[in-house]
Design goal:
The chain is an alpha/beta fold. Helices cover 45% and strands 14% of the residues. The protein is built from 18 helices and 14 strands. The protein starts with a strand and ends with a strand. Bound molecules: nicotinamide-adenine-dinucleotide. Nicotinamide-adenine-dinucleotide (NAD) binds next to helix 5.
């Protein structure tokens, strides 16, 4: 199948690479010239495990191309995927649809023959109707259908998730369009659920799923706070809860709050849609509020740990919003660091992240000091703070860290270390919910 993908970011690029690997002819389009130049030079623009190898292979074998030209990507395509951003509106927090609307308008004139236009971006209910209207207005004679095809990949696991989806949700209002999507995902037919629903249901499924996951994280974070006060251990509690198949063990890891480019924006957008439709989505509203407060509370824990030190120094391990990605968008780690910088401007913070330091620099520049590795970050620090769950932080040589640090406190907001091992290495160790 000939596929054009509009938007070559965290969703568009892995999707393009994956679809090319399945044998499709894929053209990835992005309006950012520098991104396309980089990709055309054979350099990746994001970090994702397993992406590079498949990217090189499919470019070499001629199934994957990159362009800024809408015409080149859309003309002759059987399927056009829209994977542009839907960031939160700065004031209302609803999904800002300007990129979707622009993409729909820009692609319209290049449609040739019957084409399915599928929205991969996370979009409010009714967007399918809007996209259809915009295309129709610009190109009244075009032969097309608009489908909702929400994306569920997890950053850090994008390639894995592309090839092993739990489910593929297809919101198609015509059989012809549904058949095109069924054909696209034929290689997965045996191993995954392909669920065909109304377009508006499909659009809702994406938000309802993300909001539910965000609430589950917030729930276990509140339980962790409770466990600390009540003398329980949140891990034992989560394990006991998770054994109930109605609850399940996933997303019961306490931490500094949910973040990333999806959960915060999608919970806010869902809450906005609730208000717009006169429906009180009180659980989602509470999770949003509680999750915002949580970052402040976590920063307070760090400030409490450094209080009493003269010219305190903090080593921060982790800046990405989670392990396995370079993405710092709405990263709890970055937000906590920024709260620290605001509340204690004289605090010396030296941070290390295996992949996200370039993106962190874009957000805070040189206000933060950056280390080459986790041990350099620890040098001379009074307190070491773990903010992102990178596997390599679990392997910290604690005796070496102890020798490098000035102080002996660890605040582990990801519960990566084993408390007994930290204590045995001479640390005063704080974690979450135990
Ligand atoms: P991103 O910002 O990484 O990428 C979007 C890209 O679209 C950018 O490179 C931008 O330059 C490009 N773009 C914008 N308008 C364009 C236009 N008119 N023509 C060509 N290119 C254009 O965003 P992302 O993280 O890939 O997210 C895209 C959508 O997918 C969002 O709606 C998001 O909510 C959803 N989503 C993201 C994830 C994730 O893990 N990041 C997961 C599921 C769903």
């Amino acid at each position: 199948m000939k596929v054009g993908i509009i938007g070559t970011g965290y969703v568009g690029l892995p999707t393009g690479v994956g679809l090319a690997e399945l044998g499709n002819e894929v053209v990835c389009i992005d309006r950012e010239q520098s991104k396309i130049d980089k990709l055309n030079k054979g350099e990746l623009t994001i970090y994702e495990d397993g992406l590079e190898e498949l990217f090189r292979k499919n470019v070499k074998e001629g199934r994957l191309r990159f362009t800024t030209s809408m015409k080149e990507g859309v003309e002759n395509a059987d399927l056009v995927l829209i994977a542009v951003g839907t960031p939160p509106h700065p004031v209302t927090k609803e999904a800002d649809m300007k990129y979707i609307h622009a993409a729909a308008t820009e692609l319209a004139e290049f449609l040739t023959g019957y084409t399915v236009v599928a929205t991969k971006s996370t979009v409010p209910v009714g967007t399918g109707d809007d996209v259809e209207g915009l295309i129709r207005k610009k190109n009244p004679s075009a032969d097309f259908d608009v489908v909702s095809l929400p994306e569920f990949l997890r950053e850090g696991f994008a390639i894995h998730d592309f090839f092993n989806p739990d489910r593929i949700i297809v919101g198609a209002n015509t059989k012809k369009a549904a058949d095109v999507i069924r054909e696209l995902y034929k290689p997965f037919a045996e191993k995954t659920h392909l669920l065909f629903v109304k377009r508006r249901s499909s659009e809702t499924i994406k938000y309802a799923s993300n909001a539910f996951l965000a609430m589950k994280i917030h729930y276990i974070n509140e339980m962790a706070d409770f466990c600390e006060k009540a003398g329980a251990d949140v891990y034992e509690v989560a394990k006991g809860m998770g054994l109930d198949s109605r609850i399940g063990p996933k997303f019961l890891n306490p931490g500094p709050g949910y973040g990333g480019s999806c959960f915060p924006k999608d919970t806010n957008a869902m809450a906005f849609m609730g208000r717009k439709n006169g429906v009180n989505l009180s659980l989602i509203e509470a999770a949003i509020k509680g999750n915002d407060t949580r970052k402040e509370q976590m920063a307070e824990r760090i400030l409490a740990a450094v209080s009493g030190f003269e010219n305190p120094k903090v080593a921060v391990l982790g800046l990405a919003f989670k392990g396995g990605t370079d993405d710092c968008r709405e990263s709890p780690a970055m937000q906590i660091v920024q709260i620290l910088m605001r509340k204690a401007p004289s605090l010396y913070i030296r941070a290390y992240d295996p992949k996200a330091m370039e993106n962190a620099k874009i957000l805070v520049g040189d206000a933060l000091h950056y280390a080459q590795d986790m041990y350099e970050a620890a040098e001379g620090a009074d307190v070491l703070v773990i903010l992102t769950e990178w596997e390599q932080f679990k392997e910290l040589d604690l005796k070496r860290v102890k020798l490098l640090m000035k102080g002996n406190k660890i605040v582990d907001l990801r519960n990566l270390l084993v408390p007994e091992e930290a204590a045995a290495a001479g640390f005063e160790y704080q974690s979450i919910g135990r």
